[in-house]
C-alpha cells in the first residue's frame, strides 16, 4: 500500500516555495518601485528647485543684504563720476534711493529669453531698482531628459540715471583751469584752437595768443571753475547762460610804465581830436593822425576817407574848454609780447560851441598798440560795452 502523505507534503512545499518566491519578487519590485518613485520625485523636485524662478527668492535676499550692509555698490557698475566731484558721487546718489524702502520684489524682465542667463527686474517698493542677470553653472541631466542647473549671480545692473551737465572752457593757450580746486589736465583739451575775436585786426601785424577749448563732462552739481593766467593770477571770465566759460586772451595786467602811459594817452587824444576836427593841417590834420597809424590798415584808410568826407565838415565850430580832458583813465595794461600791448583808455573831452552851449565827446575803449617801423602805432580800438 502506497504512502500518499509524502506526496502531499512535497506538493505543499512546492506551492509554498512558489508563493514565497512570488511574495519575495513582489516585495523586491515594490522596493524597486518605491526607490524609483523616490528617486524620480527627488529628481523632479531637484529639477523644479533648479529653475531660475525658484532660486530668485534667495538671490533677492542676497540683494537686500547688500543694500543693508552697503556692499551693493561693490557689486554693480555705475557711471564714472567726474574726477572733480569725487568718485562716490553716483554711488551715494544711487544708494540714497533705497532709504525708507519697505520691501523688495522681482519679476522676469521683458525680453529675457536666454534660459542659461535669465534676467530679473528688482523693485524697491514700486520703483525699478536693478536688473539682475543669473548664470547657469554645473549643468547636468537627470532622468535622461531633465537638465538641472546650479545658479550664480552674473551681474547686477543698476536702474539709475542722473542729470548731468557738461561745460566748455575757452581760454588762452598759456592759461590754466581749475575745477573745484583741482587743476584740469591737457587730457580735457578738445584740440580746438580759436582766435580771439578781439585780435582780428592786431593779428595781421603780430602773432597773438590763441585760445584752446576744454570739455568738462558729467557734473551733477555746479562746479567752481576758475581761470588763471600764465603768471598765476586769477582772471575774470565771461559765463554764458549754460555755464560755459570764456576768458579773454592776454597776459596779466601790470603796472604800465609812465612814459608808455603818456604816449598811449597822447595817441588816443590825437585820434579823438581828428574825429572832432581839432587838428590843423591839410586834410583836417590827416598826416598828424596817420603818423600813429599803420599804413594801409583799417584805421589808416578810415582816417583817409573821413578826411575828405562831408561828415567832418558837419562838426560844429567849437573851442576846447579850459580843462578839456576830464575823467582820464589809463588802466588794464597788458603786454602780450615785445611788439604788442593794450590798455583801457577813457576820458571826456569838453568843448564849447561858438554858437553857444557845450558839447562833450567821450572816449572809452581798449586800445591795441603794435610796434610798426620802430614806433608804436594804433592797431585797433574796441569800444567798452556796459
Automatic annotation (TrEMBL):
UniProt keyword list: Membrane, Transmembrane, Transmembrane helix
Membrane spanning residue stretches: 16-39
Designated name of the protein: NTF2-like N-terminal transpeptidase domain-containing protein
Amino acid at each position: 500500500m502506497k504512502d500518499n502523505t509524502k506526496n502531499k507534503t512535497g506538493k505543499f512545499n512546492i506551492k509554498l516555495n512558489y508563493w514565497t518566491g512570488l511574495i519575495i519578487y513582489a516585495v523586491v519590485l515594490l522596493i524597486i518601485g518605491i526607490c524609483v518613485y523616490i528617486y524620480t520625485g527627488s529628481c523632479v523636485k531637484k529639477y523644479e528647485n533648479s529653475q531660475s524662478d525658484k532660486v530668485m527668492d534667495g538671490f533677492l535676499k542676497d540683494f537686500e543684504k547688500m543694500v543693508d550692509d552697503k556692499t551693493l555698490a561693490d557689486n554693480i557698475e555705475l557711471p564714472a563720476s567726474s574726477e572733480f566731484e569725487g568718485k562716490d558721487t553716483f554711488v551715494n546718489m544711487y544708494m540714497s534711493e533705497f532709504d525708507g524702502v519697505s520691501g523688495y520684489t522681482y519679476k522676469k524682465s521683458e525680453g529675457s529669453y536666454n534660459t542659461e542667463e535669465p534676467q530679473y527686474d528688482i523693485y524697491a517698493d514700486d520703483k525699478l531698482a536693478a536688473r539682475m542677470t543669473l548664470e547657469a553653472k554645473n549643468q547636468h541631466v537627470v532622468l535622461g531628459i531633465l537638465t538641472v542647473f546650479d545658479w550664480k549671480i552674473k551681474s547686477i545692473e543698476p536702474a539709475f540715471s542722473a542729470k548731468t551737465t557738461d561745460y566748455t572752457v575757452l581760454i588762452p593757450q598759456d592759461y590754466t583751469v581749475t575745477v573745484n580746486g583741482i587743476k584740469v589736465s591737457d587730457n580735457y583739451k578738445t584740440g580746438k584752437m580759436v582766435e580771439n575775436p578781439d585780435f582780428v585786426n592786431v593779428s595781421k601785424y603780430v602773432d597773438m595768443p590763441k585760445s584752446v577749448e576744454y570739455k568738462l563732462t558729467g557734473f551733477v552739481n555746479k562746479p567752481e571753475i576758475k581761470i588763471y593766467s600764465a603768471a598765476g593770477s586769477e582772471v575774470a571770465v565771461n559765463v554764458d547762460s549754460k555755464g560755459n566759460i570764456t576768458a579773454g586772451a592776454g597776459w596779466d595786467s601790470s603796472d604800465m610804465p609812465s612814459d608808455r602811459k603818456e604816449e598811449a594817452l597822447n595817441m588816443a587824444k590825437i585820434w579823438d581830436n581828428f574825429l572832432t576836427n581839432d587838428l590843423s593841417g591839410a586834410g583836417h590834420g590827416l598826416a598828424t593822425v596817420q603818423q600813429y597809424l599803420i599804413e594801409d590798415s583799417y584805421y589808416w584808410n578810415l582816417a583817409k576817407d573821413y578826411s575828405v568826407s562831408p561828415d567832418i565838415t558837419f562838426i560844429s565850430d567849437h573851442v576846447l574848454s579850459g580843462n578839456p580832458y576830464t575823467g582820464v583813465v589809463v588802466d588794464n595794461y597788458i603786454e602780450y609780447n615785445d611788439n604788442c600791448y593794450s590798455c583801457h583808455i577813457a576820458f571826456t573831452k569838453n568843448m564849447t560851441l561858438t554858437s553857444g552851449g557845450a558839447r562833450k565827446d567821450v572816449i572809452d575803449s581798449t586800445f591795441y598798440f603794435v610796434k610798426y617801423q620802430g614806433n608804436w602805432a594804433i592797431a585797433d580800438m574796441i569800444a567798452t560795452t556796459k
